[in-house]
Amino acid sequence: IARRGRRLESGALVALGLVVVVGTGASWRRTRDWSSDDRFFADMLAKNPASFSAKINIAAAACDRGDWRTGLPLMQQAASAAPNDAPFLANLATCLFRADRYDDVLGLQPRLLQPDVRANLDGNSAAAATLANALGGAFAMTNRPLEALAYLCEANARTPNDGTIRSNMAAQSEKAREHGHLVGCRGFVPWDVLERAVNPPADAAVPLR
Length: 209
Fold this sequence. Notes:
10 helices
């Protein structure tokens, strides 16, 4: 999957910008210019080494620049403070995605079955879309366009005006058509229903194919 600013071949997928945490999941914005944020949150962390917001924002800034070796350890340090926080999960998934750790991104899916995680995501559309885009990207990079589309459709339902997500959906739709599948989006799908549809138990329905 692509780094920002690069044009991708058909079937690849663009990562969204990460999410700035102003509170603990209460406020957010997509990254634009990290220069002032870096100084602000570094100062915050120096004054309060246990600060969740400082750790997650410094980590997100590093990952957004492609420095996931710095970002991921800080993400893991922040995990104990608010492991079900929507921006935390979105940033963690995107940072893992940019590190090409697709199996680890997909390993976050069972978290969608937890009621508090679902509630947090439902209350933060940007974080929800960022997480769904990363999950879709991980499936895209492992050549599973139908599963990718399931998550990308959810990302689009959460932020329907996001051009990056629409472009990602178009690329995966084309890839699915190449394999004889015509797929349409159905709007909002509950997170637990989506996770079970993409990863059905072995004795349940046929997986998406």
